[in-house]
Write a structure and sequence with these properties.
By secondary structure, the protein is α/β, with parallel strands linked by helices. The protein has 2 domains: about 230 residues, P-loop containing nucleotide triphosphate hydrolases (Rossmann fold); about 70 residues, no CATH class. It has 11 helices and 12 strands. The strands form 3 sheets. A 6-stranded mixed sheet has the order 6-7-8-3-9-10, sandwiched between helices. Strands 2-1-4-5 form a 4-stranded antiparallel sheet, with helices on one face. Helix 4 packs across helix 5.
């Protein structure tokens, strides 16, 4: 996917400008920024529902501004914030609608279509909703059904506007793990997210959309190391410190990075290379978990320090901790 000098807005009024972005296959791009800044405008420009004021959007060799909707639907699926109200349709019926671009003139589903529908519902953990009327399920279940519909299209590009809307914390993490799985299979994902911790943890790069219409493309670690969230959301010092506490569990200080707080009084505290270290483990939710596999001690500074941790403090292990936490909160059977 390539965005080349994209200028977008409504009725010739520019909302975002000069958006340049080359997205590799399987990459997850998160879009973050204040409300009204233009996140949805960029997504609508990508999926072709909003005509560009300038520039171009390419899906491989397909120019979105010149392509027919059916051509786009065969390679891209979309999850919007608009709530659909299907009449007399079960949740499976709604998910099945994702296969319409590939059906014949009578809308008949083939065996491979049903296989894609089954997989999508399994990925979103809504198989038990198959025969339940879409109108009768909760808002969170409706959102998971709509995401399953998008997955059922078997897209090469998946564009999502606030996909975690209406979801509780468990299903938000499960969704992000599902998106990571799809990205590993080569699906390119572009999504706007309000949960900064999810955007920073799961996205390969972030598109920062500012109120004045300009954008920046940065890696998550660059966003944190350069302190970009403060300006992006126009935060005062107290607000910014609270945001940092919610993300890395400690007050922000000069030199603090996303994964490693070099200003911590106990740093360095573990025999792990700094380039692979994750300070989030110092706030590990598994300290009181009987079978975490390791042990810990209290330091004279009142800090819990892991010993013989079953999840050594490498960045890539944090998802395993999250999985273990889910098991702790909701019982066994939570899959990777």
């Amino acid at each position: 996917m390539k965005l080349d000098k994209v200028i977008a807005g409504y009725h010739k009024k520019i909302v975002v400008r000069d958006v340049d972005l080359n997205v590799a296959p399987g990459e997850i791009i998160g879009i973050i920024g204040p409300n009204g800044g233009g996140k949805s405008t960029i997504l609508k420009s990508i999926n072709g529902s909003l005509s560009l004021i300038g520039g171009s959007v390419l899906l491989d060799d397909l120019d979105v501004s010149k392509a027919l909707p059916k051509e786009i639907s065969k390679v891209m699926s979309v999850v919007t914030t608009e709530r659909v109200k299907p009449i007399l349709m079960t949740c499976r019926d709604v998910v099945s609608a994702g296969r319409i671009p590939f059906t014949d003139g009578f809308g008949r589903l083939k065996e491979e279509d049903n296989a894609q529908i089954d997989r999508a519902m399994e990925l979103m953990k809504i198989k038990e909703l198959s025969d339940i009327a879409y109108s009768d399920v909760s808002d969170g279940q409706k959102q998971r059904t709509l995401i399953a519909r998008a997955i059922a299209q078997d897209p090469k590009f998946l564009v999502m506007d606030e996909p975690t809307s209406y979801m509780d914390i468990r299903h938000r993490y499960e969704l992000m793990e599902t998106l990571k799985k799809l990205s590993d299979e080569g699906v390119t994902i572009v999504a706007s997210l309000h949960e900064l911790e999810l955007a920073l943890s799961y996205c390969d790069r972030l598109l920062l959309v500012y109120d004045d219409g300009h954008v920046l493309v940065k890696r998550p670690d660059e966003v944190m190391e350069e302190g970009l969230l403060k300006q992006l959301f126009d935060l005062d010092e107290d607000m910014y410190d609270k945001v940092m506490q919610s993300i890395i569990g400690t007050k922000n200080a000069g030199g603090t990075s996303f994964f490693t707080n070099r200003n911590c009084k106990s740093f360095p505290c573990h025999d792990v290379p700094e380039t692979e270290f994750n300070c989030m483990f110092c706030y590990c939710p598994l300290y009181d978990y009987d079978d975490c596999g390791g042990s810990y001690v209290w330091t004279d500074k009142g800090i819990k320090n892991c010993k013989n941790c079953a999840f050594p403090h490498f960045r890539d292990n944090y998802s395993k901790v999250i999985k273990k936490l889910k098991e702790k909160m909701y019982g066994q059977g939570i899959k990777e």
